[in-house]
């Protein structure tokens, strides 16, 4: 058994269970090293950003048939993208 990896996964799950509870609830998820987990947005922050994007899209809607696109060029851990992409017709993550 790879003990350092196992310990990293336990610590990662512990951090994710507080910061990303939806993600932590999925079996088989491999957690990254400590730094990306510390630097990523929390689930709650990402959900707030998604609600804000949804509200802004609704305010700016000129035509209900016009597709709304999201392009995330930040290339971070993807937490914000995973929630914000749900309110867009098309989403691209770089």
Short description:
This protein is mainly alpha-helical and 94 residues long.
Describe the structure.
- The chain has 94 residues and is mainly alpha-helical.
- It folds into 2 domains: 1-39, no CATH class; 40-94, no CATH class.
- It has 5 helices and 2 strands; from the N terminus they run ααααβαβ.
- The protein has helices at residues 3-19, 21-24, 34-39, 43-60, 79-84; strands at 69-72, 90-93.
- Strands 1-2 form a two-stranded parallel ribbon.
- β1, α5 (79-84) and β2 form a beta-alpha-beta unit.
- The longest helix is centred in the middle third of the chain and has 18 residues, at 43-60.
- The mean pLDDT is 91.
Q: Could you tell me the strand content as a percent range? A: 5-15%
- Total helices: the number is 5
- How far from one another are the termini? 34 Å
Kindly state the number of beta strands: 2
Instruction: Please give the share of residues in helix.
Output: 40-55%
Major beta sheet summary: 2 strands, parallel
Summed up, the domain count is: 2
Given the C-alpha coordinates, what overall shape results? elongated
Task: Write the element-wise H/E pattern from the N-terminal end onward.
Answer: HHHHEHE
Radius of gyration, in Å, reads 16 Å
Q: How is the largest sheet built, in terms of strand order?
A: 1-2
Structural class: mainly alpha
Overall mean pLDDT score?
91
Low-confidence stretches: none
């Amino acid at each position: 058994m790879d003990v350092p990896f196992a310990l990293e996964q336990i610590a990662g799950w512990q951090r994710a269970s507080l910061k990303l509870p939806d993600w932590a609830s999925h079996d088989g998820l491999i957690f990254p090293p400590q730094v990306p987990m510390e630097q990523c947005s929390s689930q709650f922050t990402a959900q707030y950003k998604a609600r804000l994007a949804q509200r802004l899209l609704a305010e700016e809607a000129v035509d209900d048939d016009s597709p709304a696109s999201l392009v995330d060029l930040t290339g971070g851990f993807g937490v914000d993208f995973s929630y914000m992409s749900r309110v867009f017709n098309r989403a691209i993550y770089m």
